[in-house]
Write a structure and sequence with these properties.
Shape: globular
Distance between the termini: 25 Å
Number of strands: 10
Helix content: 25-40%
Order of helices and strands: EHHEEHEEEHEHHEEE
Number of domains: 3
Largest sheet: 10 strands, antiparallel
Number of helices: 6
Radius of gyration: 24 Å
Length: about 260
């Protein structure tokens, strides 16, 4: 997956856990067998020994089937900042890359029997998730899976999105992590959250006139800063990728 879209927020992570374990084990074993002589680095020597012991603990094979995930959040209009209730509907997509998704679903059915009601097959066709599994969420959520991919989608075009995401292929360069944020939308949301929090503070009993005036000034200043930020910045994209030179982290910020 890539970060090139107009969605409010995207986040993706790709990880070869078995490869990571082998890399960490090799480095920590080498350090444990040939520790630093400097007394100031004794803590690192001890940490290496403890890390080797931890890595050697048995791990369920299913863990190494995890390859990564991708989440896209576009519409937050259904969220009420003043209520802890579940939003009526949001536009969101998620993809899990996992070897043997059918095995994962079978294990999930033992913990969540309603999963057995879903005729979900590894053919990429979308199936609606039973409403009783959504714990109060009123919107429709569709799932689709292939042998190595599980996609979930809610909101506009959920059924079609789940189907396309489940079978999507990506020709982008491999990356450890990708994040894309609509800065204007994010800052507007943060401003709304902050404004709501400050309004709650205004109800505190015992607040005198000076404190109330200071609170109002703070609210106005924060709102002005948020509005200015949203007018200037457009989007930020962060990519973390392994290269022959080590880990590179290119960051791109676009302006309006």
């Amino acid at each position: 997956m890539t970060a090139e879209s107009e969605a409010m927020m995207k986040f993706g992570l790709g990880l070869d856990l078995k490869g990571l374990r082998g890399f960490v084990e090799a480095k920590m074993t080498a350090l444990a067998n040939d520790p630093y002589e400097c007394a100031a680095l004794d803590g690192m020597n001890m940490a290496a020994v403890q890390m080797v012991q931890s890595i050697n603990q048995p791990v369920p094979p299913l863990v190494y089937n995890f390859k990564g995930f991708f989440v896209e959040l576009d519409n937050l209009d259904g969220i009420d900042l003043e209520s802890p209730s579940v939003p009526e509907s949001i536009d969101a997509n998620a993809v899990l890359a996992f070897d043997n998704v059918e095995g994962l679903i079978a294990m999930g059915q033992m913990m969540l029997p309603p999963l057995g009601m879903m005729e979900l097959a590894a053919d990429g066709e979308p199936v609606q998730i039973p409403q009783e599994m959504l714990t109060g969420y009123a919107g429709e959520v569709f799932a689709a899976m292939t042998e190595n991919t599980l996609a979930l989608s809610s909101g506009k075009g959920a059924s079609g999105n789940a189907k396309s995401l489940a079978s999507a292929t990506d020709g982008a360069d491999p990356a450890l992590m990708v994040m894309s944020v609509d800065l204007a939308g994010y800052m507007t949301l943060m401003g709304d959250i902050q404004e709501s929090a400050l309004e709650d503070l205004d109800d505190i009993e015992g607040m005198d006139e000076d404190q109330a005036e200071a609170l109002k000034s703070m609210t106005d200043a924060q709102q002005a800063l948020t509005d200015a930020y949203a007018e200037v910045f457009d989007r930020e994209v962060v990519v973390i990728k392994p290269t022959s030179n080590g880990i590179e982290v290119p960051i791109t910020v676009t302006f309006r």
